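Fold it.
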Amino acid sequence: MRNIWSGLTILLIASMNLFAGDSYQASLEAGDSLRAAGNANGALAEYKTALEQAANDTEKSLALGKQGVVYVYDIKDYGAAKAAARQALDFDVTKPVARVTALQVLADALMKADSDYAAAAAALEKAKALEGVEWAMPSIALSLGDCYRFSGKFEEAVQSFRSVLDMGNADNMVKAVASLNLGQTYQYSLRIPEKAKQAYYQAKELNPGLAAEIDDHLAKLP
């Protein structure tokens, strides 16, 4: 099942010849740019520099959360991701971006490393309940749908994936993944082939780049 992480906007800067930033914000931006360029280790180094430069708990929490993002999605060191996320959550933060980032990292690490979908769902529900996190709701709902599906809560999974399709701030790529995941839930879990086909066709329309993967699933339907 596909999932994507789209909670934080990647900040691009002009030069790709980057070095340690001379301020907290510069280090974060340098890390974001290096990660966008595929340099996970370079990004991690910048986020660690940002942690050293942080002036308050919110800044420390965000720097740790971004480290967790690299660990869980790029390096796939889930133990390090969980440690960074839990350390980030220990801080008393004032901005929701720091907390929601850490909660999403923790949830994905729990799913991928431990198959602990109940604990992952609990973390995501905490993220969902935060104020001012509308920008993160599409990715939260996608991850919640995965938790519900793999823990056997298929109707809840359907509701979560469908909710993404109704979100005005979800782009077509995110909606396509939600529709693809919805199709898989209908096909392999609920055994409703017609609804699976509808979801797959919608996913293909939203993102034609998924056509080959979707056709593989369609070929298994009656």
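Residues 5-18 have pLDDT under 50 and may be disordered.
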